[in-house]
Input
Amino acid sequence: MEKRLLIIKQVEQEGPGYIADIFSEDGWTAEVLEMSGAGTPLPRDLDDIGGIVILGGPMNVYQEDAYPFLKDEESLIRRALIDQVPLLGICLGAQLIAKTCGAAVTRSPRKEIGWFTVMKTSEGMKDGLFRGNPQHMTVFQWHEDTFDLPGDGVLLAKGWVCANQAFRIGHSAYGLQFHIEATPEMVESWMRHETEVDVKRILRDGRRIMEIFADQGKRVVTNFRRIAESSLQYRKVISRFVDEAQRLEHG
Output
């Protein structure tokens, strides 16, 4: 098992932002797979993967006929959940995790585009993913769908337009409806062709609050790295135990 992070990138304009750099600071290797290219294979064996991040994209989870790779990502999510590989889904990635776990993904009451505040729940206040961040967090939103909370999911953060903003499945699978990875350049790129919102206001607000947003987002990514590191050490111990048990069994 290695300190290897797999990043699933849906389209060119929605990259990993700060994520790869923060993981590399602790000796992790980040591998980015872009799914919009035809025939991008996803690994079937996750033994040498320490964590998975699934990024956002402009497609919807129910557009599997137009984007068949979404089914491959759902299969990857199922394997990660079974093998207890730490998983972080952002925006579309969170919706895919919710759908894979049996929750409905539908159109939200209205699109959320721009800077919003989400509030940690009582469970979110205790969860290691948000450790060090305030109860009210500044996030960037860019989505038109929302998800129901999966049956076994724990709600970690909520919003005023879309109630379900962050959840956890099991010990280390997380879904975030909002973006925590975006750099200033990414936000400007995303807003370049938006016509439904006041882009000038969003960019102006961004210049004012970007430092706060970046600090909070980087803290979430750092916390996920720590969760992945802890899980990796646990999996290594279990693997050694299983190997030793098999050795003794076969003499």
About this structure: DSSP finds six helices and nine strands in the chain. The radius of gyration is 18 Å. The chain has one domain: 4-249.
